[in-house]
């Protein structure tokens, strides 16, 4: 009886061993338990990327930095790690999809406005349910601010066409061109609250731009757009509508079309031609869109004889103080941190601006956050600032900052003051220097700007 029991137990053990062997053979090679993917290393790599993306950069040479979203949420970090752990082939496939060429698109552009004709153009665009880009003159925008607002409210794009379209001044030197671009930029910012990086040269770039113009505008954060379809509406005064339409139709259709038209004074025939031009491109299957800084601009080739004009080249110092820091104006709005006298304060986006290579901010906002006392004299139109042992007077009538030194002497700085919404805005560099706290470092990261003073 005992031998039968032993035999039965041996038989059961042999059957169990056989089942285990079958299961082992049936499992695929490299099998690992599911639910525990090895992704812990990926968040570490993302953290390293964040560290390298937010290194300090000298403000005099701003760099475009690729930012990484460093979320503290564990689930988000795991999701990011899992995404980075996807097979390589799938990533390549998605990249190919992103690079897929866009369909046929037409960009209607209007130069020299706004004018009374601009409202007529806007009405037609609204009726046809299409958008356009308006390259406006600063002096005209200042004259018709309500039209500028209607352009923006209609979903259209604004571009900078300089201030007064004066060829002699604009193409005499790059400094003059830059000055007009900045003047128009400020006019548009005051009306809309935003800046536009889109620029179009009056008359186009050919025969007007040399390499200096192209390079410095790009370095300053601007995108210069010419065109590849000329409507011919500015060939002479009073070009009839049918001729304008004919000019457009004779151009060979391309996938990306930028049409040059004008909405300035004397262009009522362009208004008459516009509906037929829109219908023409609709029949050809084009989509309508606005120009943007993200797309590659259409630009004319460089005129081989442009070097004969012998125009002055801006100095390296002028470029460093005006052009280089300008690009930061078109980056995402980020706060500005100011450290001075062992005190730190922060200005949110909108509480400061960068202008002519300098930060400007409301003097009361800045100084009171740093712990100073600020008084205003209506009689003398001056601000009095007292901070520790330092005393400064901001005389807006003379355009002078005066620092009262301990030895009884006065030190003055010529300063351009601005009045905005009943606040006095002052450049930070001379202000802090007058208060015995000169700026020693200016840095920029992907999420913050910082000025450090003594």
Automatic annotation (TrEMBL):
Any coiled-coil regions, as ranges: none
GO MF term list: hydrolase activity, acting on carbon-nitrogen (but not peptide) bonds
Xref: PROSITE patterns: NODB
Pfam families in UniProt: Cu_amine_oxidN1, Polysacc_deac_1
One GO biological process term: carbohydrate metabolic process
Domain NodB homology intervals: 104-289
Protein name as annotated: Polysaccharide deacetylase
Species per Swiss-Prot/TrEMBL record: Paenibacillus mellifer
């Amino acid at each position: 009886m005992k031998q039968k029991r032993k035999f039965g137990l041996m038989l059961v053990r042999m059957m169990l061993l056989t089942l285990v062997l079958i299961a082992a053979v049936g499992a695929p090679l490299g099998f690992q338990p599911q639910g525990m993917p090895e992704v812990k290393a990926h968040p570490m790599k993302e953290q390293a990327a964040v560290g390298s993306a937010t290194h300090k950069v000298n403000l005099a040479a701003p760099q475009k930095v690729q930012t990484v979203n460093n979320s503290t949420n564990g689930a988000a970090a795991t999701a990011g790690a899992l995404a980075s752990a996807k097979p390589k082939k799938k990533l390549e496939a998605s990249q190919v999809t992103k690079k897929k060429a866009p369909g046929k698109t037409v960009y209607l552009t209007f130069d020299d406005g706004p004018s009374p004709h601009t409202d007529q153009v806007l009405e037609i665009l609204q009726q046809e349910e299409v958008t356009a880009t308006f390259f406006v003159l600063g002096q005209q925008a200042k004259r018709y601010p309500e039209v500028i607002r209607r352009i923006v409210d209609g979903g259209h794009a604004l571009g900078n066409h300089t201030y007064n379209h004066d060829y002699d001044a604009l193409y005499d030197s790059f400094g003059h061109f830059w000055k007009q671009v900045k003047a128009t930029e400020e006019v548009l910012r005051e009306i809309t609250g935003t800046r536009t990086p889109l620029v179009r040269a009056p008359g186009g770039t050919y025969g007007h731009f040399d390499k200096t113009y192209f390079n410095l505008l790009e370095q300053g954060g601007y995108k210069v757009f010419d065109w590849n379809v000329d409507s011919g509406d500015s060939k002479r005064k009073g070009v009839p509508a049918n001729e304008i339409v004919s000019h457009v139709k004779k151009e060979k259709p391309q996938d990306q079309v930028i049409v040059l038209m004008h909405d300035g004074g004397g262009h009522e025939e362009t208004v008459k031609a516009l509906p037929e031009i829109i219908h023409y491109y609709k029949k050809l299957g084009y989509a309508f869109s606005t120009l943007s800084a993200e797309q590659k601009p259409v630009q004319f080739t460089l005129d081989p004889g442009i070097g004969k004009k012998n125009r002055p080249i801006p100095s390296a110092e002028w470029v460093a103080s005006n052009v280089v820091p300008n690009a930061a104006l078109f980056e995402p709005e980020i706060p500005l941190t100011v450290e001075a006298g062992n005190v730190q304060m922060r200005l949110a986006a909108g509480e400061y601006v960068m202008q002519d290579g300098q930060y400007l901010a409301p003097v009361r906002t800045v100084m009171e956050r740093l712990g100073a006392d600020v008084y205003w004299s209506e009689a003398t139109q001056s601000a009095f600032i007292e901070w520790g042992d330092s005393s400064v007077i901001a005389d807006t009538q003379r355009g002078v900052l005066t620092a009262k030194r301990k030895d009884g002497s006065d030190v003055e700085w010529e300063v351009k003051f601005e009045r905005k919404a009943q606040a006095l805005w002052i450049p930070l560099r001379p202000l802090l220097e007058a208060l015995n706290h000169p700026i020693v470092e200016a840095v920029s990261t992907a999420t913050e700007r910082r000025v450090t003073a003594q």
